[in-house]
Amino acid sequence: MMIMKKSGGRSMDLSVTLAIASIMTLGFLIGTMLWNLDTMKK
Membrane-spanning residues where (predicted)? Predict the structure, then answer.
């Protein structure tokens, strides 16, 4: 990830990084829940 970009504003980079992190966390949680449900069915 390019967090040390000088051209953009620091707050912009921070918000983008936070958004990517939250999306990754959400995807991980949903994937874990789906995997648990799939394992329980068997």
Answer: 12-35
Which tokens belong to 10?
């620091």
Is the distance from CB of 5 to CB of 13 less than 8 angstroms?
A: yes
Question: Residue 38, Cα to own-chain centre: how many angstroms?
Answer: 23
Name the DSSP letter for residue 4.
-
User: What's the pTM?
Assistant: 0.55
Using an 8 Å Cβ cutoff, are 31 and 21 in contact? no
Q: Give the model confidence (pLDDT) of 1-42 as tens digits.
A: 555 555 556 677 888 999 999 999 999 999 999 999 999 887
